[in-house]
Amino acid sequence: MEEYKNLKLDHQLCFALYAASHALTRAYRNALDKSGLTYTQYLVMLVLWESNGINVNTIAQRLELNPATLTPMLKRLESAGFISRTRSLLDERVLEVKLTDIGTNLQHEIAKAQQSVECQTGLCHDEFVQLRDSLHRLVDMMAESKKKKE
User: Quick one: which of 94, 89, 52, 96 has its CA closest to 74?
Assistant: First the structure.
């Protein structure tokens, strides 16, 4: 089967990304454990730390998730005291999400957790940034390729 070297598992970019993603997610789970955040809640908090006071649809778009997927997660974040959810005064259908003081202050602890995970990768800072930027370019190129096919 040497004619199909491209089908070897170790030659697959998709598997390398899959395995790396799982390793990073595990590292984040461990680092986030004492904060009470799950990995996906962490991602929501990242969006809110960048742009506080945005609606659920905007968060969903930023994370490439279905808004319905966010609802239970947002309820848990609200129960934990990290966020508040309110209906928009302009459009009752729109649910706005804002950080509470607890959620805002959590950023300091989480920044340390993120640095810990970055250290665990074994990559120097420049390698870390280069890999991240390459992956963003990959996502952009795949999205562009998909648009061309549609």
Answer: 96
Q: What is the DSSP letter of 26?
A: H
Query: Measured between alpha carbons, how far is 49 from 75 in angstroms, rounded to an integer?
Result: 18
Q: What pLDDT, in 10s, does the model give residues 97-120?
A: 999 999 999 999 999 999 999 999
Q: Distance from CA of residue 64 to its chain's centroid?
A: 9
**What is the pLDDT confidence band of residue 1, given thresholds at 50, 70 and 90?**
low
- Check: CB of residue 45 under 8 Å from CB of residue 110: yes
Count of domains observed in the chain: 1
Q: Provide the residue type at 27 as one letter.
A: A
CATH code of the domain containing 7: 1.10.10.10
